[in-house]
Amino acid sequence: MLLLVYFILASIIYLLALPFLLCLSFKAKYRLSFKKRFFLPTNLKSQNFDIWLHACSVGEVTSLKPIIKALNGQKILLSVITQTGFKEASKLYAYKNITIIFLPFEILLPFVAPKVKKLLVFEAELWPILFYVAQKKGAITKLVNARISLRSFSRYKRFSFFYKMTFKYVDFVLAQSKDDATRLKELGAKNIKVIGNIKTLSEIKPTKIYKKPKKKILCLASSHETEEALVLKAYFELKKEGFLKEFFLVLVPRHPERFSEVFKLASTYVPTKLFSDMESSFDIDEEILVVDKIGELVNIYNISEVAILGGSFISVGGHNPLEPASFNLKLISGKEIYNQLELFKLVENANLIGKDELYASLKNLDSLKPSFIKESKKESLDEILS
User: Fold this and answer.
1) Is the full-model pTM beyond 0.85?
2) pLDDT per residue over 311-337, tens digit each?
3) Which contacts (CB < 8 Å, 24+ apart) does range 255-258 have?
4) What is the CATH number of domain 2-202?
5) CATH number corresponding to 216-373
């Protein structure tokens, strides 16, 4: 009954939001995803798949590599939410046995969803009709890599009735940590097992090898709004004082729609180069390089000396520290890492600092030790795929 009420409410909201969705669909950021999610979803109702994997965006899509490899040729449906996630999935998993789609909006799913044997949904993608439709068609349903941070738990509890309804259609939950498991259980999850973060399953390797430049690279990785300004201010204050002479700065914004904005900001300090305008060598004349291409971050880590992890100086929750630690970089992060706590526990020599400590940390880079992964925590794929 509650699911029917949810479906009706979602339908009303969908109809009311149609003009707004239509306007947004003309923006480059949403053009492809909104068309397929809200207007013309991919109709797979007559098809059958061995397994349906659903991941939201780039990070989750990338972490599926060992799982897809273990599926060994099974017929796979992979759904995503974002355009960047779709592009990354299309690049990584262009195999005949894998169909990649945008996840249709909830009220459209009953009319286009295929029949599957298993549904694996990753992290916090709690779409009740997705689980319901898959289960109704005979699938075993799992929420994998499940997490709920302490910071967001109070918000979840306000809508506990919604999550209790959703978890009725989730057969198994594989949580990242004991704390996540406790919080998920309180929201109505059942059959919970702690397996850690699936990102630890991936072997992190560059996809392209660049020659190390003469100057050392200080990389601001996966940055969000205001974080570039924070780093640029500290960086150029130190440059004026004669520090960081052997470095140049590489900025890697998290979201593609901010590439131009970040380039303009950096250009107010010194002449700046875009990655897309760069020739083969990283030995550039400019003081700053802005990476305006998805999928290059790991390749840049491979030739960097220092990484500052973005999404951690503002309330975003941090980003994956295993990647820079895999290349033994000196690693600096803000303290807002509530979505990555379990991964940071696996990294030695990660320096967690406040905004006001960034200047001092960069000034004393020589005293920082290279980071490394202190524990290789490889969870069993059998638990995920069983």
Assistant:
1) no
2) 999 999 999 999 999 999 999 999 999
3) 255/84, 255/224, 256/29, 256/84, 256/292, 256/294, 257/28, 257/29, 258/225
4) 3.40.50.11720
5) 3.40.50.2000
